Inverse folding.
């Protein structure tokens, strides 16, 4: 974070990290992982809606709140 704070154009400079990886590569990897997590979450919510049809009327946020409390 200190490195990114020093430079406003992080993606253009593609700074190397301490472990030798480039920052842009880390961002690309993190976005790919986040997309996989979102897809898995959508699949889980769809399965719950199939199991309990009354959940079809809830938003994803509302359904996650209900599932987190159970």
């Amino acid at each position: 974070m200190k490195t990114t704070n020093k430079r406003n154009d992080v993606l253009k400079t593609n700074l190397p990290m301490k472990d030798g990886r480039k920052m842009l590569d880390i961002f690309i990897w993190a976005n790919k992982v986040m997309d996989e997590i979102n897809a898995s979450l959508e699949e889980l919510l769809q399965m719950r809606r199939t199991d309990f049809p009354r959940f079809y009327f809830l938003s994803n946020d509302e359904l996650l709140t209900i599932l987190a409390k159970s």
